[in-house]
């Protein structure tokens, strides 16, 4: 049976234990991490009205090859949407309209985005056929079965062919017409009102509209029809025919008068070469087909050569330098 301690013995034991505890722990003022712990304890309990700032990892920007085949709209927009809307400014020497800005929308880019979406859908059809080994009847779902809710590959292929034809038509209109009907630009007052009303709240810096298309020399003050009337088209076609006939007559009569008034071998050679070269450049600017440019230039050169030969026979002697 253990012996019980007396009051004096228990008091001495408590005093010795308290002395050991004081020796094992450093004084509060000399503790090396005391200030850090105190600061940490103060930070753990924020004061009233204190604002916490949390840093979250930013979303990585979608790369050009990050394509979701089931939802390609975002990828198509990130790839081609930057060319859809741009800024236009008046001409630098136009002091009246200096500082004004507007927008320009290229509707042909919308058609290009539509064609890219159709290409993705056609590639999706082909990938499903390859994975499932199915036939070419109807549209295949992701499980390799016919899905009536999805567009058939025949319809998508027809839309793609029709879209290419429509894009060729847009290209021809931009070349033959003075005003491109598939481009909405702020230089026209009508388009400027439409674009400023529709895109007026668009932040150019956030959207990335830092690339300017061009400085517009003509900043219209009055309304001008984008698509002319039938009467205007009739008079414009008549005027263009008159201009073409006048230019053709000038290219035929001009060298004839020159070679009749200025005789000599070098005059005939230089004038014929110069007129044929200028005529060929004009045909290259007007005509689209290569064979048409070549045939028209060759026909004009043949006419001048025949005239030079007839002139030599009429004079009865070879041209003298």
TrEMBL record:
<keyword id="KW-0472">Membrane</keyword>
<keyword id="KW-0812">Transmembrane</keyword>
<feature type="transmembrane region" description="Helical">
    <location>
        <begin position="264"/>
        <end position="286"/>
    </location>
</feature>
<feature type="transmembrane region" description="Helical">
    <location>
        <begin position="238"/>
        <end position="258"/>
    </location>
</feature>
<dbReference type="InterPro" id="IPR046529">
    <property type="entry name" value="DUF6594"/>
</dbReference>
<keyword id="KW-1133">Transmembrane helix</keyword>
<protein>
    <recommendedName>
        <fullName>DUF6594 domain-containing protein</fullName>
    </recommendedName>
</protein>
<feature type="region of interest" description="Disordered">
    <location>
        <begin position="1"/>
        <end position="69"/>
    </location>
</feature>
<dbReference type="Pfam" id="PF20237">
    <property type="entry name" value="DUF6594"/>
</dbReference>
<feature type="transmembrane region" description="Helical">
    <location>
        <begin position="293"/>
        <end position="312"/>
    </location>
</feature>
<feature type="compositionally biased region" description="Low complexity">
    <location>
        <begin position="12"/>
        <end position="24"/>
    </location>
</feature>
<feature type="domain" description="DUF6594">
    <location>
        <begin position="178"/>
        <end position="305"/>
    </location>
</feature>
């Amino acid at each position: 049976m253990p012996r019980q301690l007396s009051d004096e013995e228990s008091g001495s034991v408590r005093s010795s234990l308290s002395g050991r505890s004081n020796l094992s722990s450093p004084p509060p003022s000399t503790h090396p991490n005391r200030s850090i712990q105190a600061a940490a304890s103060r930070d753990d309990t924020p004061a009233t009205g204190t604002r916490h700032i949390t840093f979250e990892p930013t979303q990585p920007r979608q790369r050009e090859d990050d394509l979701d085949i089931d939802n390609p709209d975002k990828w198509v927009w990130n790839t081609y949407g930057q060319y859809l809307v741009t800024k236009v400014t008046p001409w630098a020497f136009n002091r009246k309209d200096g500082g004004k800005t507007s927008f320009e929308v290229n509707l042909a880019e919308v058609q290009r985005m539509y064609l890219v979406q159709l290409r993705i859908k056609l590639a999706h059809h082909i990938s499903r056929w390859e994975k499932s080994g199915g036939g070419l009847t109807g549209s295949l779902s992701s499980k390799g079965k016919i899905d009536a809710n999805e567009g058939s590959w025949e319809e998508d292929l027809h839309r793609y062919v029709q879209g290419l034809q429509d894009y060729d038509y847009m290209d021809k209109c931009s070349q033959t017409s003075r005003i491109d009907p598939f481009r909405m630009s702020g230089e026209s007052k009508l388009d400027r009102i439409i674009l400023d009303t529709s895109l007026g709240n668009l932040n150019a810096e956030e959207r990335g509209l830092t690339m300017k298309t061009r400085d517009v020399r003509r900043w219209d003050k009055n309304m001008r029809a984008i698509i002319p009337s039938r009467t205007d088209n009739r008079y414009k076609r008549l005027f263009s025919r008159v201009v073409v006939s006048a230019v053709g007559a000038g290219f035929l009569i001009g060298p004839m008068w020159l070679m009749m008034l200025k005789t000599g071998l070098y005059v005939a050679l230089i004038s014929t070469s110069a007129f044929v070269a200028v005529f060929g450049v004009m045909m290259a600017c007007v005509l689209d087909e290569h064979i048409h440019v070549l045939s028209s230039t060759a026909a004009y050169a043949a006419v001048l050569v025949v005239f030079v030969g007839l002139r030599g026979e009429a004079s009865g002697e070879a041209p003298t330098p």
